């Protein structure tokens, strides 16, 4: 087929791709949008021209080695259920748009780290893209039987590349927001995956069954080669070590290659699509590798002796047999493989470059000042240019650097460079201690090792210098891989451990490593110390999302958290929410910068907040305790003061009492002394007076004694509970005992004494001795105060309800109303004419009251009729008395 | 999918890693013909197919 | 008969009155007894004693009040008043002198001494 024809074919092919892409775009049917198979097939972009041509070349010339590129992925893919699920969750929550975003966010949303990673990716991938271009170009020339020309403009490959560039730029930048899936592009890539597989299978079947007579025939012929056994073995321990390291290399590549991260993580629509990928991707890889052995050895057999590029076997074999159709099919298959790789890689890289290099360091200011449309346009333009630029660079790279080298070695070099991201990448999701400085220093060290051990020798074409770093049983590539990654990891770990991360990093570390826990708390997991005006946030959002979308988003947010739309200050959740929204457009680092520009102060982490809250809580508790204690103290002090006052009062009372007592005691003493003195001095005292004085002495001594007894008794009454001896007595008898001794006195004084008993029973509970004392006291008073008036005394006894009641009425002058209660006070002295001191001690009424109260009764005085009536009442509750049955 | 089923898959990964690396892989490190292909290929592909099959079954069975 | 010294003895304790009355009579006084302040004032309407013995603690009119009233009377200014009391704190003593007492005697007292004091006061 001639070159023009082929070119047209290429064109048609690309149109087909366009078509598929646009159909997928327009139709929003679940088939296109929610399809786990499309997702899984898009991951198969891993198989690029390298698979198509490079593998065969390696299989034919070196042997089993080519398989290592796939061994890594098939080993690790089942574990994606754990690893990738985590990565997908983290990425969705943070609107991660690229691997640079993913890693740089983890280490403190660092702009510089993002830029560094972008540069490393660019360094790794541009050559890789160059590879694809080389493959397309070489195969194009091969199929069209044209030669490579050094003139770019006459080189047909150039135009092919140009077409691809256009396609990529257009579809790659259609959507600025990371959340909007590039359905069209992914659909096209999935279609390409199908095509390249099918085409390769066609080739394989053709070679195995068409050219040869099946596997056995092939094997029989191949095994005649002297190096057959050698090539088809791993190569002992040395080989196994290399094998192992290479699988590790490809294992990291399946995660870290920008196109892989993009299709697996960024373009993932539903987490459960991952489950399909778990078996579908290894299956795909298996299918595409089945026929590598036949094709490789078929080529070896067919082209034995000829110096032919084994990488081109897949074209050369059908071509040799004039199978034009198959040749073209193979070419298209290879084209598919290359194109899909170029498209996805360039898209991924351009996103990284715009979000991590250009926008943060360049045009950020311009962006925030313009409006939405301009902003979007600007970003899109930046990305378009980025894509074009990348492809152009790759092309130049191919033209000037890799013309001589094999696909395989360039590819491996690319892998080794991208593998430098491994320590920081994997540590991001498993190791909280990983720090920004660790990542940066590890990366730089690793890249430096790569440069020294890979790039330099490659560029200079010289042999790898045998330095300290050369481990003899490693391939140069493996050697470079081992040492660069070793140095990288060690420095990363050491710097991370010995350095102190800042809180921003720790926040992200928490979120990444414990993403599941974090997802529970979502928007509120970060707390800002600062504040922002809602208006400022809105303004920024409008610039990027537009008026409509911003309003929608904020409305949803406000509804979710029940905040009014009028709220002036943006709280922590709104800030986080806005940051997220923006990150989808311009990447997390830039979003962070913009948001920070309108908020004051820094974030503090949830753990820190919890710490502060805990402290506050403790302080409040402490405060409360202290306040309580101080209250108690106040109370106590008040009580003490009160007690003190009362003690002072009692003290005063005691003093007064003692005063009164002393006074009372002195009176009979005076009488005694006076009488005694006279008796002593006067010898001729008349007998009558003598005996009178002697009598005085004795009676006053008795009085003194009684007084002292009363005082002591009163004290006892006041200070002890149980001074009564309660028993059952006949009240009639008791009264008789009282009245009998004073009967003659009453007669002498001509007082009419009446005793009236109104009782339902005779026996009552009381202390008889004391009761006699009381009644005696009252009667004595009564007698005293009626003496001058020839009055009458009425003693009445009754038992209403449960009480024994006694009333003693005496006619005579009444007690002033305000003194009715005070007469029961100790030593009460009244001014009133009628209230002379009672015959006794002056404590009589006081003692009587205490006695009755000890009976749980009461006593009071009342002015009635013509005189005064004293009433006393003693309750008769049997159980009370039982309780009060005192020991004798 | 429940945690323990996820762990089954991780186990598959670990097992394949061991099977496809030293020392086990060296047991099959020959180019002798087994079902038309060198033994080493046969072994690798067998393991490969088995892992796909197991993964497929685990996913299908425990997919909620 | 002014040769006999007149004295009013006021105390509400009968037995004390008895003793005092006996001893002052024996010493040649004409004794008038009173049981409270009002009785003293009553007596003073008709008699002009050379001295008055006043107990403080008396019903109706107590010693201080009686003292006050007596001292209010111009014609009794020469009358010597002796306060007799069981209380012996300085405040009471001071009060008595402030009100115009001439002497203050605390119970219990020696009758002999009391007699002596009164004698001295009168002469």
Describe the model.
The complex is a heterotrimer of chains A (888), B (64) and C (123). Chain A has four domains: 3-461, Sodium/glucose cotransporter (Up-down Bundle), CATH 1.20.1730; 514-601, no CATH class; 608-717, Signal transduction histidine kinase, dimerisation/phosphotransfer (DHp) domain (Helix Hairpins), CATH 1.10.287.130; 723-883, Heat Shock Protein 90 (2-Layer Sandwich). Chain A is an alpha+beta fold. In chain A, a hairpin with a 2-residue loop joins strand 10 (858-864) and strand 11. Residues 524-529 and 831-839 of chain A have low confidence and may be disordered. In chain A, strands 6-8-9-11-10 form a five-stranded mixed beta sheet. In chain A, strands 1-4 form a two-stranded antiparallel ribbon. In chain A, strands 2-3 form a two-stranded antiparallel sheet. Chain A is 70% helix and 6% strand. In chain A, helix 8 packs across helix 9 (156-172). Chain B is mainly alpha-helical and 64 residues long. In chain B, 70% of the residues lie in helices and 6% in strands. Chain B has helices spanning 3-19, 24-27, 39-62, and strands at 33-34, 37-38. In chain B, strands 1-2 form a two-stranded antiparallel ribbon. In chain B, strand 1 and strand 2 form a beta hairpin. In chain B, helix 1 runs antiparallel to helix 3. The model of chain B has no long low-confidence stretch (mean pLDDT 84). Chain C is of the alpha/beta class and 123 residues long. Chain C is 45% helix and 22% strand. Chain C contains five helices and five strands; from the N terminus they run E-H-E-H-E-H-E-H-E-H. The mean pLDDT of chain C is 86. Classes of the chains: A alpha+beta (888), B mainly alpha (64), C alpha/beta (123). At the A-B interface, helix 5, helix 11, helix 12, helix 13 and helix 15 of A face helix 1, strand 2 and helix 3 of B.
